[in-house]
Amino acid sequence: MLRFEQVTKIYSGQRVVDCLDLEVKKGEFLVLIGPSGCGKTTTLKMINRLIEPSEGKIYMNGTDISRLDPVQLRRQIGYVIQQVGLFPNMTIQQNVDVVLRLLKRPLQERQERVRELLAMVGMDPALYAERYPNELSGGQQQRIGVLRALAADPPLILMDEPFGALDPITRESLQDEFKRLQEKLHKTIVFVTHDMDEALKLADRIVLMKDGRIVQAGPPEELLRHPANDFVAFFFGKKRKENEIYLETVDEVMNPAPVTIRPEQGVAEGVELMRRRHVDSLFVVDKEERFLGQVTIESLNREHLRAHQIIELLDTNVPTVLAGSKAETAFRIMTEQRLKYVPVVDTEGRLVGLVTRTSMVNALASVVWGDGISA
Amino acid sequence: MKPLLILALEHLYLATAGVFLATLVGVPLGILLTHYRRLAPVVFSLTEMVQTVPSLGLLALLLFVFGLGNKTLIAGLLIYSLLPIVRNTYTGIRSIRPELIEAGKGMGMTRLQLLTQVELPIALPVVLGGIRVALITAIGISTIGVVIGTGGLGQPIWRGIQMENQGMIIQGAATAAALAILAEILLTALEQRITPRGLRKRKAT
What we know:
The complex is a heterodimer.
Chain A: E1 2-11, E2 14-24, E3 29-33, H1 40-47, E4 55-60, E5 63-64, H2 70-75, E6 77-81, H3 92-96, H4 98-102, H5 107-120, H6 125-128, H7 138-150, E7 156-160, H8 168-185, E8 188-193, H9 196-202, E9 205-210, E10 213-218, H10 220-225, H11 230-242, H12 244-247, H13 250-253, E11 260-261, H14 267-277, E12 281-285, E13 291-296, H15 297-303, E14 321-322, H16 327-337, E15 341-345, E16 351-356, H17 357-369
Parallel strand pairs in A: 3-8, 3-9, 6-7, 7-8, 11-12, 14-15
Antiparallel strand pairs in A: 1-2, 1-4, 4-5, 9-10, 12-13, 15-16
Chain B: H1 4-35, H2 40-52, H3 55-66, H4 70-94, H5 98-107, H6 111-142, H7 154-162, H8 166-194
Helix pairs in contact in B: 1-4, 1-6, 1-8, 2-4, 3-4, 4-6, 5-6, 6-8, 7-8
């Protein structure tokens, strides 16, 4: 969709953006982040040519954008800015359909589109279309700012700290709303922020910049788990703890030594094992430690007279999670299916651990009260 | 001498004509200056300099070019009115929040669209304020026109001085003052009407 090739921007001798190579895939939510003055906003504004690069080329769908008419280019790119920038002399209708008007679309189509868009963010068109920006709250104004960028249905949207000036609660609700919107619309989005939480929440891929260069680019997880250098680690450092609940994988919260039993072992052995280890389920694995299923105390109590071997009581219908998946996934399975635990298996199907309600509580506790309580 | 009403209308015509021409020149000039900002201080000090020349002196100088009559007065008024109109147009546009300009450009407006759809509508009340100041000044200055042979309310004042007729002087002066006040009231009202609803100050709720 977008490709930066050795793009450099020099302001009075200073390389604000320095030999930037970057590719943005179609449908990708790319977040540019970094300390102030790192060149992230400059990078963004070179895409719609509000700023021209000093060197290098930017390609959109294979076309060098410096060869396009900037006015035509901008009409194909949505643009949302931090200060919202709604035109105070225009109604909400006129603000939202401004690009459609520039494209000379008929009035009826424009009105319909505005109604559709307002409804999409839960604002009653009958109530809001004829109002003026100064009659709306800050959050509502930025909703309109986002709708204005979406109006002409551009495939690419640029967002320059769009939620930065809002209070924390409004910001979060707009982020959530926008994320939902994006899941429906699948736009390609280049999003600038200095807010780490925002980046982690929204990004498919984060590009961390410093002094006009990319320090590291990758999915949020990757930057958190494998920071390329101390700067990245430091930048994400504080956030990492705060967000433990999102970031931990099942490997970190699981009990690595669940009580196992072989299918050919006797039922009596199973009962004895449960009594000794104070558990009410046993996990059945074969010689290669591959997970087969479970036996519960209920089935043992019920069937111990009839059955001789564990395999006869084996319950194979047990949901599992793959090692390395997010702890959240395991937690969700447990809550949704009302399970007390979820076995963790590796790609070969070997049982490597067990996520229990206790590990869930411990992980939550470590987020709320800090580390040290974690199992 | 003509009846007072005719003189008043003449007076109004002269003042309005000068200001009208100044608007035709001043507004585009002000807009132009927002694009060539380095020129702005030069133009402003030039127009301010002109402003300091006494009106009688300026009219006398213009007399050499245009000769006796209305033309000279209107030219003088044009020059005097230029400063408030150019300045208000310039500051009106310059004081628009920069993010609005950025948003307009970012949406894909051409220079002209940005001017007509964003800059001018928002700056219009300020521009009109400049025109109002210019018109009120022009109504005052127009009374001097009588010395270079124009009509208007300068005539009863001048005649009254010569004839030592105080009533006549007051007639002319009071009417001119009334015209200025009327212009002030009308243009202030127009300014308020013309302000886009979204830009009017909201009453505290």
